[in-house]
Structures are given as C-alpha cells and as structure tokens.
Amino acid sequence: MKGYIHSIEKRRLFIMVIGNVFLGMGISIFKLSGMGNDPFSGMVMALAERIGMTYANFLILLNLALFVIEFITGRKFIGAGTFVNAILLGYIATFFHSTWLSLFGEPQLIWQRVVIVAIGVVVCSFGVSLYQTSDVGVAPYDSLSLIMRDNFPKVSYFWHRMFTDALCALICFLAGGIIGLGTLVSALGLGPIIHFFDVNFTEKLLAKRPLNQTNLENL
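^ thats the sequence. predicted structure below, dont judge the formating
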C-alpha cells in the first residue's frame, strides 16, 4: 500500500480528495432541499432511516458489501479514491448538512428548494468530475456499472448506469425515501454537467505538469 501511494502523482490524490469534499457537499445540498437526492444517496438515506442507523455508518456498511463485488470482479477499479469515497463521503455529507441547517435552517418556500437543487447539481457535478477524472480508484457503487460494461460490452455504459440508478431509485421509493425533483435532475442532468467540467476544467488541470518538471525539461 505504501508503494502504491508513492507511485501516484500527488496532485491526482489531492484533486481526488477535493472532489470527494465537493461531492459530499453536493449531496448535503440536495438533502437540504428536501426534494430528493441522487438515486444511490437517496436509497442509502432511506434504508438507514428505516433500520435506525446514521447515513454515514450505513453507507460504510453498504460500501463494504459492494467492495466485495468490486474486489472479485473489478479489481482494476480499486484505488485510493475507492477508500476515500467509501469511508469518508458519508461523514463529509453529514458535516455539511448540519452546517447548512445551523446557518440557514430548512428552506420553506418552493422557489428556495428549486434553487438549492440547482446549486446541488452544479456542486455534485464538479465533485464527481474531480474525483473520477483523477483516475485513482472508483467507489464501490460507481464500479458496478463499469464492471457490467466490461462484461456486457454490447450495451453502452449509459444504459448500465441507468439500470443501477433506476434500481436504487426503486429501492429508495419502496423504503419510504424521497423521490422528487432532485432525483430527476440528478438522473438526467449530472452527466452533461460532469462532462462540461471534465472538458473545461478537470482535464486541463490534470494536463498541467508541475513547474519543477517543466523547468527540468527546459534546461
């Protein structure tokens, strides 16, 4: 593990961590809106509430189960980002949600909730772009659609991801969770906005070489 950490470009690790912070922030913003989260987060929140556990603790348990699948069938997707996301994301989201409640309270008006959903989409998309494009490991849930794509290459990744998200949304609904505007916008809007950040920010950021390396090549 120590050798693995040293082999990764530190900038990628930093970008991955920052990406997870923004992703957790985005999840907390969606939750604050009261209009639904992305399908996976919504499912986790609904199941955690149903069995009486905190969101963060239940997320770790579920990620542990999904990690077994990732380890057996998609080991190439495992990296530092896998563990940062699986272990810390729930606590990051919980921290920010508590912070928003203490600072602003719950939004009361519908237009406030809609604006919060819009902010959540942008923040989540930015976080996912940083975390995934850094290419240092994929979260257990995110690996499922990638594993399915590799095993069923005739079906595009889009449909594999749609299947896993739809299944999560169904479980969320059956568990009494919130399926609303936030869920719909997450399912349809995250992809294009993530792509926008990938092309216009994250890929350019990762393409930049450290200053000392550039200087050495110019000597």
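The radius of gyration is 18 Å.
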